[in-house]
Structure formats: structure tokens, C-alpha cells
Amino acid sequence: MPIVTDAAFILPDDFADAALMGRIWRPDLAGPSVVAIRQDGVFDITDDFPTSSQLAAVADPAQALRAAPGARVGTLQDLLNNTPPDTRDPTRPWLLAPIDLQVIKAAGVTFAVSMLERVIEERARGNPDSAEAIRAEVTRIVGTDLSRLKPGSAEAQHVKDVLVSQNAWSQYLEVGIGPDAEVFTKAPILSAVGTCVDAGLHPKSTWNNPEPEVVLVVAHDGRIVGATLGNDVNLRDFEGRSALLLSKAKDNNASCAIGPFVRFFDAKFTLDDIRKMEISLEVKGPEGFVLHGASSLTQISRDPADIVGQTINENHQYPDGFVLFLGTMFAPIQDRAAKGQGFTHVEGDLVTVATPKLGRLTNRMRHSGDCEPWQFGLTELFTALMRRKGVGRSSN
User: Fold this and answer.
1) What angle do CA 98, 103, 105 make, to 5 degrees?
2) Are 76 and 24 in contact (CB under 8 A)?
3) pLDDT tens-place string over residues 233-283
4) Cβ(235)–Cβ(248) under 8 Å?
5) pLDDT tens digits, residue range 157-184?
6) How does DSSP classify residue 150?
7) Given this model, what pLDDT does residue 388 score?
8) Domain named Fumarylacetoacetase-like C-terminal: which ranges (predicted)?
9) Which of 336, 192, 361 lies closest to 281 in space, CA to CA?
10) CB atoms near residue 232 (< 10 Å)
11) What is the pTM of this model?
12) Fewer beta carbons within 10 Å, N or C terminal of the chain?
């Protein structure tokens, strides 16, 4: 099943008003470039901003992006057409994930629905056969409307006391309605994959799912300067067996998809737009299976600014900034292979995460070992940037 590479499909609906930053691989320079996505083409602005993290750090990234002249490297459609690895011409440029030196962080259990699914995973010990019966039991004890509880409030503490008395408390409820958010490192710097490429699943996982999320872009001083989309690929069986397996459940080759572009905040796109966003998800399977889902940020338990404040503060700094997955309310329970087993991926699934103001992130699911290996790290980035000094701008 081919990956959709149509530019009109990938771009935000209001593209003409959007300040969009991306990254591309330039074979002629043997390295990545920071680019501005404009109506008249894609422009390499690396001479002004060698890394995307440097652009995100300026006082007004949207204005700086628009002001940087750059060198035209082609059309977005040509770049998209050359991005899928199966048909790529390695002598021509292609798209990458739109971030580089930013630390990749993620917030977990920020929605009541997904919080309950985490409790179910924990009680099922990673076995999908047990999930349906446990879901009914947990819903009976906990209820389904925890979304109105403010984490850390007196009301939340009362709910905790009741659940503890019924032996129904969970570590996931602790971070879901307790005072402290769960924030973890999703993946190493430079390891994220972008749109129109393969995303990775651990081959030993038999119960897993996509997690469609908004990803905030945060500067070194804590300013939230923009956003993009992400798929926080999750292995439910691994994490369900033990929360100590979180790193194996979350961090595998190509298991962090981010893109298609970073949209910087300006007069027409602000944090308030994020707070009311609805993120849609579509999974198309090679056998004809189709799954649709959605995640509304209006249902999030913690305000995005609060989660950022719990991530960067006097106790923890990020000199090159960070990006932050905000979590998802989407928890797929639609049966796929057998009744009562819910959803899990199969190789070849096409996953599209979308919202009108950020565009569409689309990836094909494969085993992590079959995805493109991650070979370009920090040493290679510094070498590439030093090599291109003095090369000057080129255009076509």
C-alpha cells in the first residue's frame, strides 16, 4: 500500500497563513538543511539558522522564518515524491523530521480515557485476551468520567482515597489525577522520523497501537513557540507487563514519528488554537481493515502550559530546547483479528495523524529492524555543518 505524498494532503488547510519550518536531506551537501516551506517553493535557510533548535530559540521564530531569504531547493511536491524509502532517488533531496537538537519528551496519562486503558494494561499484564473483562471491572469501580477532576486537587485526592480502599489504585492513576505529571524521554536527539517514511514496531510486540498527539516546540527559556504532530508509537504488551519496560515500549528504531512541519506561533496561530484542537487518526491495513479515531485537546486533564512548566524549570534545563508530546485520549479497543482482543498493528498499516492547522503526518508501519537504520547522529551533524561552511548558497 503506497504512502500518500500529495502536498495538498500533507499541508495545513490554511497553508497560506502558516509559518512552516521543515528539514530536508541534501545529498549534494551530504547533510541536513533547515528549510522554510513557502507557496513558491522550499527554501534552504541553513545559512541563517544552522539548526531548527536555533530558529526556535529566537524572539519571534515565525517572523525570523519569513524574513530569512534562503535558497530555493525545489518544490514541496518533488521533495515529498522522493521521501518514501522504497522509491527514493538518493541523489535528490527528501524530507526529514522537522526537529534536530531538541530533546524529545513526552507526557503520559494526560487524558481520562487513555488513563483507564493504562490501568487495564497494567492489570492484564500485557495480555490482550484479558483486556475486555478487566475493562468492565475497572469501569465499574472507577467510572468513566474522570476528565473533570483537576489533577492534584482535593477532589482528586478523595477519589484516590476511595480507590485505595477498594484496592483499585494504580501507578497510572497516580500520574493521571495526582499532582505530578508523567514526563519521560521518548527518543534520542536526531532519532525521530518524519512524514511519508516507515515507522517502527518492535518485532516481539503482539499488542500495540498508534498514539496521535500534538507535539509542542519549546525554546531553551521555556517559551512555547510552535507545534507539530506526532505518533507516539506504543507497545501495550511491553508496558503492561511492567512499567519499568517503558523505554522498550516507547524507544525503538523509527518508533518516534514527528511532522510534517513545525508551525510557529503568530497572530493567526497560538497556544489557544492548540488547546481546542481535535487530532484525527486513520489506520488503513493491508487486508482492508480501517480504523478511525480522534483526540480532542479540550479533554486534556492538564493544561499544556502546566505540563511544559513541569518539564522545564529551576530543576531541569534544556539548552537546545525540547519538543513535548502532550499525550492522547485515543485508546483503540476496536477488535481486529479476534473478538475481545482489540486493536493491534500489522505490518504495512498506513497511519495518518491529522488536524487542519498542522497538516497530516503519515507513516507505514514496519518492524523496527526493517526500517531505515538510524545512522546520522550528533557527530555527523556537527561534521556536516562544518563542511558546508564556505560552500555558500546554491539555488535551482
Assistant:
1) 100
2) no
3) 989 889 878 878 888 899 999 999 999 999 999 999 999 999 999 999 999
4) yes
5) 776 676 666 566 666 676 667 778 889 9
6) P
7) 87
8) 224-365
9) 361
10) 26
11) 0.86
12) C
Instruction: Please report the pLDDT score of residue 393 as a whole number.
Output: 47
Q: How many CB atoms lie within 10 A of CB 124?
A: 21
Distance between CA atoms of residues 55 and 45, nearest Å: 10
- Give the number of other CB atoms < 10 A from CB of residue 284: 18
Record the cell numbers describing residue 55, joined without a space.
530558529
Q: Which residues of the chain have pLDDT under 50?
A: 392-396
Q: Per-residue DSSP letters for 7-55? A: HHHHS-TTGGG--EEEEEEETTTTEEEEEEEETTEEEE-TTT-SSHHHH
**Cβ-based neighbours of 158, under 8 Å, separated by 6 or more:** none
CA–CA distance, 9 with 7 (Å, rounded to integer): 5
**3-state class of 295 per DSSP?**
strand
Residue partners of 204: CB distance under 8 A and separation at least 6: none
What cell does 133 get?
473483562
Cβ atoms 221, 309 nearer than 8 A: no
User: Maximum CA pair distance of the chain?
Assistant: 69
pLDDT at residue 179 in the model: 76
Run of H or E including 164: helix 154-165
- The three-state secondary structure class of 326 is coil
Please, what's the b/e burial string for 141-177 (b: 16 or more CB within 10 A of its CB; e: otherwise)?
ebeeebeebebeeeebeebbeebeeeebbbebbebbb
What is the chain's length? 396
Query: Coil, strand, or helix at residue 87?
Result: helix
Average model confidence (pLDDT) for the chain?
88
Q: Which of 3, 21, 24, 22 is nearest to 376 (CA)?
A: 24
Would you state the pLDDT for residue 395?
Answer: 44
Please give the CATH number for the structural domain made up of 7-108+182-388.
Answer: 3.90.850.10
Q: Where are the domains of the chain?
A: 7-108+182-388, 112-177
**pLDDT value for 245:** 87
- Residue 23's DSSP bridge partners are 34, 96
